[in-house]
Design a protein that fits this description.
It contains 8 helices and 10 strands. The protein is of the alpha/beta class and about 290 residues long. Helix 6 (about 175-195) packs parallel to helix 7 (about 210-215). Bound molecules: zinc ion. Pfam families: Polysacc_deac_1.
């Protein structure tokens, strides 16, 4: 289990003392279908349906009630996804871009959960109720005991992306071994989850030019790193301001009490959402911007 723990210290930056802003209470139903809806298990296709204004108000009220149940204030509604994605991905024959943030002026951040060791059913319930979008970067060695767990999260509309077969430090491997790790997981994830990932997160954030070449040859379109890293209670900020910035990609992990000093993944996620809400940000779906 511990092989998947990132080497960063758990001692981290203090919670930013940035201004707490009230959150707008506009409907997010445009972006996410209602939990109570019979169609809630579908993802992007449902997003484009047009619920009535009453339906949207009911859905929003249900989400706000769910936030309170989890001891949280609701996040603001995210803006509509951009018509043109702001990050240029690899074109045929081109290099794979390496990104840590999304260029935007909006007060939005992007959540990513890595590895897949912890498989707490309560986390599925939480994310179904709160309708917070996130991206999963999955390692086969961590998920192979229960692929089905992540299908439930995928069915909520969340993306499944590539985090290698066995979580090596890719910089220690030669080109062909890197290709094996990346293409192997690409095939595995496509077999299990139906679509081939477009995004690669190299374990530990370590990559080199062989990684870029391997990613391209495996059909991936971008290498995605991160700006901020969620610990147990606090966020570890890269910027000395100790605050979130528009477009930040946030790293979190599928970790449970044995790795979080007794804290559950839902408690950790509640802490994460609280930091985001307190700084007046909300969460958007990474795949809508990449
Ligand atoms: Zn990892």
């Amino acid at each position: 289990m511990h092989r998947w723990i990132r080497g960063t210290a758990l001692v981290c930056a203090l919670l930013a003392t940035g201004a707490t802003t009230g959150c707008g209470a506009e409907s997010r139903a445009d972006a996410r279908p209602a939990a109570s809806s019979a169609t809630s298990s579908a993802s992007s296709s449902v997003r484009h349906s047009q619920p009535s204004r009453d339906d949207r108000r009911d859905a929003r009220a249900a989400v706000e009630a769910a936030y309170r149940t989890w001891g949280l204030k609701p996040l603001a509604a995210p803006p509509a996804p951009p018509a043109v994605k702001p990050v240029k991905l690899r074109a045929d024959g081109g290099q794979v871009p390496v990104i840590s943030e999304i260029p935007t002026q909006e007060k939005i951040v992007f959540l990513t959960f890595d590895d897949g060791a912890e498989k707490d059913p309560e986390f599925v319930t939480m994310m179904r109720e709160l309708k917070v979008p996130f991206t999963m970067f999955l390692t086969d060695a961590a998920i192979r005991a229960d692929y089905g767990y992540f299908k439930k999260l995928q069915a909520l509309g969340n993306g499944v992306q590539n985090h290698t077969l066995t979580h090596p430090d890719l910089r220690t491997l030669g080109a062909s071994a890197q290709r094996q790790e990346i293409c192997g997981q690409q095939t595995r994830l496509k077999d299990e989850y139906g679509t081939a990932p477009r995004l690669l997160r190299p374990p530990y954030g370590n990559w080199n030019e062989d990684t870029r070449a391997a990613a391209a040859s495996c059909g991936l379109e971008a290498i995605v790193l991160w700006r901020e890293s969620m610990q147990i209670k606090n966020m570890q900020y890269q910027s000395p301001t100790g605050k979130l910035h528009p477009g930040d990609i946030i790293l979190a992990h599928f970790r449970g009490p044995s790795e979080l000093k007794g804290t559950t993944i839902t408690e950790m996620t509640a802490n994460l959402l609280r930091h985001i809400q307190e700084q007046g940000f909300t969460v958007a779906a990474l795949e809508d911007y990449l």
